Amino acid sequence: MKLNKILFGTHITLIFFILFHFLFIWSFNFGVNSQLVYFTRIVIYLTGVLLFFLNVRRFRFSVVYYSLYLCYPLVVAVAWLIDGMMGLIVGAALIFYFVPTETVIEKGQYQIREDFNGVLDACCDYSVYEVGSLLETKVGEFQLEMKSIKGVDLIDKNQMIVYYGDQNLDSLKIRID
Fold first, then answer.
1. What's residue 12's pLDDT?
2. What pLDDT does 15 receive?
């Protein structure tokens, strides 16, 4: 019973942590390191599965909530077996939850990351982040027509040049806010 309370407290606390993180990113372009957020998502999922198994004997609304963590991947697998595209559409929420942010290139304290907006989204949306040890700030975003960033040069603290394509002649100047 004590383990149940600890897991429940951890689960709810981490859910509120993620919600506040997304509110801060959405409102102020400021948040916690993306690797910490990814680890937190994994812990939320695992605590949900563990809480399901600890509470399955007594039926309450919370058991139905915890069962979503266990049953949703099964529903996605069945939908994919029935029709591949239907599985993709049903599983998009789960895929979005577990896809880590991909750092394409890093230069000094800046990282360029490819944005993941879903499995059927257009190609090549990128965001520029200023990364500290625990906190990070989104300082810019851009879009390319191809998926091949070759390098980055920092001009000063307000501008960077992104080289892409097969030759260094293809470049894009980005203003960092």
1. 93
2. 92
75/138 same-domain check: no
For residue 147, what are the domain limits? 102-175
**Whether residues 57 and 23 fall in one domain:** yes
**Helices in 29-83 by DSSP H: which ranges?**
34-55, 61-82
**150/138 same-domain check:** yes
Contact assessment for residue 66 and residue 52, using Cβ atoms and an 8 Å cutoff: yes
* Amino acid at site 12: I
Residues 9-32 have pLDDT tens digits of 999 999 999 999 889 888 888 888
Rounded to whole angstroms, how far apart are CA atoms 117 and 26? 14
Q: Provide the phi-psi class of 42: left if phi over 0, else alpha when psi is between -120 and 50, else beta.
A: alpha
